Structures are given as C-alpha cells and as structure tokens.
Amino acid sequence: MNVLWIFAHPEPRSLGGSLRDEGLRTLREEGADVRESDLYAMKWNPVVDAEDFGSAAQGGRLIVGATSKNAFVSGELSEDIRAEHEKLAWADTMVVQFPLWWYGMPAILKGWFDRVFVKGFAYGVRRPDGRTSRYGEGALAGKRAMVLLTAGAPEATIGPRGVNGEINDVLFPLQHGTLWYAGMSVLPPLTVCGADRVTPEQYDVAAEALRRRLRTLSTSDPIPFRSQNGGDYDEDLVLRDDLAPGRGGVGVHTS
Ligand SMILES: Cc1cc2nc3c(=O)[nH]c(=O)nc-3n(C[C@H](O)[C@H](O)[C@H](O)COP(=O)(O)O)c2cc1C
To answer: What is the average pLDDT score of the chain?
Structure first.
C-alpha cells in the first residue's frame, strides 16, 4: 500500500499532530510505504493566482492553451503542483487530515485542492461514449481516500438530529464533490469529537480507533456514493424518481 498523508495543521504538537504521528507510525508498522504533504511545514501556497489561472477562465470558461503558464490548461504547471501530482500518482491511498474550522477545512487545505486537483489531472476526462468521467469515474479512479478530522463539537451534537448536523453532510463538498467527483473511493471518515478537551483516556480511545481504521484501509467498504454514469441519474444528471422516492438533500446520493 502506498499512502499519501495530507496534513493541514499549523502546530505539530497539537492533538492533530499527535494523531498524525500515531497514524504514520501505524502505517509503517503495517508495512505500508508512506509519504506526507505537511502543508504548513511545506509553506504550501494555497492561492490560485492570476498567473495560474490566466485569462483562460474569463466568463467562467476554460480555453485550452489560451495562456502559457495556466495551471488549469497548459500542462506547464508550477513545480510545487507537479510535485504533488507525482505523489498522488504514486499513491493508491490518500489520508486527508485536518481540524474542522468553520464547518470546513483550513484554507491552506482548500487551496491544496484548488491548485492540485486541476483539469486533466483530477477531472475533465471523457469516456469513449462522450460522457464526462466524474462521480466515481475519472482520473483518480482506483485510489482510496479517507478523511481524518478533529472537531471541537461534542459527539452528541454531531448526528442526524444534533445541532451541528451529520458529519457526512458537513463533509459532502469534500467527500462527494471533490474526492468522489475525481473518481476516488471514499472510506467513511474518522472524526474525533470534543477535540478541545481530550483527556489522556479519551486520547487512547481515539488513537486506538485510528489504528484500527488504518489497519483496514485497503479492505474496508467505501461510502456507497452513486456513480454518475451507472444508471441512477437521468440525462440531466437528476436522480431517477424511483430511487429515494420523495426524498431530497445530499443523502440521496448514497445508495
Ligand atoms: C478557526 C476555528 C474554527 C473552528 N470551527 C469549528 C467548527 O465549525 N466546528 C467544530 O466542531 N469545531 C470547530 N473548531 C474547533 C476545532 O475543530 C478544534 O479546536 C480542533 O479540532 C482541535 O484539535 P487540535 O487541538 O489538533 O487543533 C474551530 C476552531 C478554530 C480555531
């Protein structure tokens, strides 16, 4: 197993940092090859600048070859992006770890996806029948991904009726809209709740849960997201009426 661990926390001595160390140690003990992108330590530039984007996106449309240095279209990607592509191409599994900040990922991690998951590398590939490969098919199909996050919210508040909502709903943009969109199989996330007040005993429980999840990374079942081209959606990519009848919301995209 080749695992790429994406770590987005500014402080290595944090709870997140300890879980990262625990995770990398566990994977190595299991015989996995592990590489890491420690975004703060790398001083990762999260901003897609004008040079990256160029004039190609004027009007929201990308025009292939319109600019020489355009990160989205030209193939002349900057070196930091190419280095991440090389790691991702090598990996069969990716762990994405971050503290939940304002219901989402820290900006540095959002900017990693913005700059690394570019057209032609992570999406924008066509099937022989002309349909676009996405949501379960695509450039990164065959790879697995798992989100590991810490959240200040207590466990009871994260659930179908908890005030913070269901974690898979909170993570829908990342798990479905990004990872699954690019073709990756997404394993259920591991969330460490109540992360601002963790006792040594609670840390041991969290670390053991992490070790268990990492030992079964290559065998555990992914979230059963529906594939775009598998027959569940009509020509307009709307879920068929007979599936999840009468229901709406993000949950209907899981079978
Ligand atoms: C800017 C910021 C935003 C946060 N937003 C949330 C949030 O939306 N939901 C939540 O449960 N916790 C939130 N928290 C709490 C963090 O998730 C928590 O402090 C962190 O996971 C603890 O792990 P650490 O000690 O490794 O940083 C936020 C913390 C910060 C600093």
So the answer is: 91
